[in-house]
Amino acid sequence: KQLSAMSEAVQHTYSQYGNISLQRDLLKNSFRLTLTLVLLLTMLLAIYLAIFSAQRLMRPVQDLIEGTRAVGKGDFDRRLPLPSRDEMGSLVQSFNDMTKRLRRASEEATRSREIVEQERERLEVILARLSTGVIVLDTQLRLRTVNEAAGSILGVDLSADTGRPLSE
Prior knowledge:
This protein is mainly alpha-helical. The chain has helices at 2-72, 87-129, 148-154; strands spanning 135-137, 143-146.
């Protein structure tokens, strides 16, 4: 009787072992599938984060490139948004300061040209009213300005000869 009970216990244990072995294979396959899915999702998330981070890091650089192109075309009013307080932020701040200084310099140059043009026109009016002949030469002895009185004194119309050498 005892041998029969032990035999039944061994058979029962053996069948439990078979069930557990079958469940173990199913569990191993389930773990493999789960780990594969987790790995795949982690890789996709890493790729997405890399692309997102690259775009976030490249946006200020692309803004700076667009800004320098605009400044190269003469648009000195271009201001870039300050992305952060790091090195890129200080670079953008320097760019904005540079465009501000360039705009001021351009405005000053325009004002200076206007003043020079006004003075030139004023000088031409004064020279035209003088009865004394006036001839202005540059450093290469080319005729720059001449008034009517100089042409009538010399007996030659010099108004068409501006820019030509004096020897001619």
